[in-house]
Give the backbone structure.
Amino acid sequence: MKVVQLIGASGSGKTSCIFLLKRSLEAEATRWKVSFKFVYVNLKIHGESRVLLYRHMAETLAPELQSKGSSASELLSGLIKYLRTKKTFIVLAFDELDTWLESDKGDTSILYELTRLNEDTLGESPNVLGVLFAARSQSFLKKLDEAQSSTLGIRPILHKEKFSPCKTQTRRFLARKWRIVTSN
């Protein structure tokens, strides 16, 4: 599982880049005939709590999943079980990470859980190819403990200039990070 930080000023095109990556990965999955979904979450909108965040992810990924009355842990476990059962791969993209973490809603334990999904599956693939976090700056790192920050990817992709809508080299880099393969 790959973890990537996409850092850039407001209006630099981070969200546009995420959606270009989504289209690129979906096209590649179609070409390889692999069941794939790209789940985008704006944390300012859907990050009210762990339960609401994971419920939104479950409903986005598989509306048929029963999510009412489930705990956050049950929702996340149910998502992973669903992915394995359906042989579906996903990339998760979380936008507005810094703004969310700096608000009173931000819960750093979510970062820990999401970046360590492959550790909770006892050697089996969680079918999560990667997790992307978009933020305006890396100031949010100050709020994280060592265990949380260690899983966020060594080299963030920094956007210092505006780009329209996403530099080709950045799209290629991100697409290579999550190359979809049909064999293990």
Observations:
- Residues 14-32 form the longest helix (19 residues).
- The chain has a mean pLDDT of 81.
- The beta strands are 2-8, 35-42, 88-95, 128-135, 157-159.
- Residues 12 and 161 are 7 Å apart (CA to CA).
